[in-house]
Automatic annotation (TrEMBL):
This is DNA-binding transcriptional regulator YhcF, GntR family. Keywords: DNA-binding, Transcription, Transcription regulation. PROSITE patterns: HTH_GNTR. The keyword Transmembrane helix does not apply. SUPFAM superfamilies: Winged helix' DNA-binding domain. Pfam families: GntR. Residues 7-75 form the HTH gntR-type domain. The keyword Transcription applies. CDD domains: WHTH_GntR (cd07377). PANTHER family: GNTR-FAMILY TRANSCRIPTIONAL REGULATOR (PTHR38445:SF10), HTH-TYPE TRANSCRIPTIONAL REPRESSOR YTRA (PTHR38445). SMART domains: HTH_GNTR (SM00345). GO terms for molecular function: DNA binding; DNA-binding transcription factor activity.
């Protein structure tokens, strides 16, 4: 995994795990890699993974079953989508609109590119 300089590594790892949950690589009830397994896989200190897992637990995305490991919660996919939609509407879209306005891009021009 390649890391960006503009964001904490543990947040980037949490985002990556969240992507895997949204893309159904990990489904609700699935066991995720142990702290040591994931640390070795992404090439970071296990303490970084513990911080990642603590963050995801605080958001209700994963849960720790003592002695067994970490598991994806039933509400994880919906919770991640809700958080990401909020981020999109609060930060990404306003910046996008500002940039489009500065470039003189009309709503009609945008609509041509937004038809999916």
């Amino acid at each position: 995994m390649e890391f960006k300089n503009n964001q904490s590594i543990y947040i980037q790892i949490a985002d990556n795990l969240s992507d895997k949950i949204i893309n159904e690589e990990y489904k609700p009830g699935d066991k995720i890699p142990s702290v040591r397994e994931l640390a070795a896989e992404v090439g970071v200190n296990p303490n970084t993974i513990m911080r990642t897992y603590t963050e995801l637990q605080s958001k209700g995305i994963i849960e720790n079953k003592r002695g067994i490991g970490y598991f994806v919660t039933d509400i994880a996919p919906e919770s991640i989508m809700k958080e990401r939609k909020n981020l999109f509407f609060e930060k990404i879209l306003p910046q996008f609109i500002k940039e489009a306005s500065q470039l003189g891009i009309t709503p009609e021009e945008l609509k041509k590119h937004l038809d999916l």
